[in-house]
Amino acid sequence: MNNYFENILASALFKCEGIYTKDDDVRQGFSRLYSFTTENISGYIDKFDLNGKSLLTVGSSGDQVINASLFNCVDQTVVDICPYTKFYFYLKKACILSFSLKEFMDFFCYNDYPKFCHDNKDVFSKEKFEEVKDLLRVLDYESYLFWDEVFSLYKPEKVRRELFSSDEDRSFVLQGMNLYMKDEEAFSKAKVKIRGINPKFICEDIFKVNLNRTYDNVFLSNIGLYCGIDRLKELVGRLEPYVDDKMLLCYLYKTEENTKYKKDWSEIYDLKRLKSSLGEYITSFDTFCGVRGILFEDEKYDRDSVLIYEKRK
């Protein structure tokens, strides 16, 4: 094992023991994995031409990568400050290739919203991990070493609680947000598409990352929610030279173009100021069924939106 990997593994074991390091402070809470996306990726992904194209994306859940693979997007790069992102993607990949949709969801979902791992005792089941670990070893040896060590030392609930954000929605909502989880047919398609997907992973703050190539598409997820308008504009300006086609500037929850700002909201939802600041980059404001719309099975109940920049050619 190299020193870099040993340090990442050690940090995970420390977390499971309730010990946090200076690196965790630097990452400001983003050192935890997300078990699944918190966005309705199904609502916006078809607004991008991904077929045979390249993608730069954030997202430690790996769901952006998996969903993009359904559109024949093989050339993918993931930038995320969470150091376990690569290991989690390959664990998901091994499980997609090995399990049925139900088995996959039982393994990854705590299933008991709003309770945590109360009824689902199969979450991160060690018995199910034994079924996939040989394949995981072939797919990515470091990912195999990481999860084999973590699962051998700690109970599944402990791993989920310490290494992951608790932000996970109901299982049927997750299925609505992720095309690859929609049903068994979609999951079977994902088994075929994901086989050839081996993204490049960059563990770094996206505000500081140095890129050495361009990408057809860039997904910035909901970064703007955390960084604010001014820093988002700075990030977009920094990345724009590396975009050949489109960039998802920001994902906005429960928001349409005419949504009125309330003072206790994150400033990213001040649409008047947001449009004024990023006006030169916003080429479309696209709205679709929101996460809560999926929850209440009514796409008009709540709408989410994405701001998109399309490069003029």
Explain what you see.
The mean pLDDT is 93. The protein has a seven-stranded mixed β-sheet, sandwiched between helices. It has 313 residues and is α/β, with parallel strands linked by helices. The protein has two domains: 40-201, no CATH class; 220-310, no CATH class. The chain is built from 15 helices and seven strands. The termini are far apart.
Query: Which runs of at least 5 residues are low in confidence (pLDDT < 50)?
Result: none
From the helix content, strand content and strand pairing, which structural class follows?
Answer: alpha/beta
Based on CA atoms alone, the radius of gyration comes out at: 19 Å
What is the mean predicted local confidence, pLDDT? 93
- How many domain modules? 2
Major sheet: 7 strands, mixed
Shape descriptor: globular
Sheet with most strands: strand arrangement = 3-2-1-4-5-7-6
Question: How much of the polypeptide forms β-strand, as a percent range?
Answer: 5-15%
Total of helices: 15
What is the fold's blueprint, element by element?
Layout: H1 3-16, H2 22-27, H3 41-44, E1 54-57, H4 63-69, E2 75-79, H5 85-98, H6 101-108, H7 126-139, H8 141-153, H9 156-163, H10 171-177, H11 184-194, E3 200-202, E4 215-219, H12 223-227, H13 229-239, E5 243-252, H14 271-278, E6 284-289, H15 291-295, E7 303-310
Parallel strand pairs: 1-2, 1-4, 2-3, 4-5
Antiparallel strand pairs: 5-7, 6-7
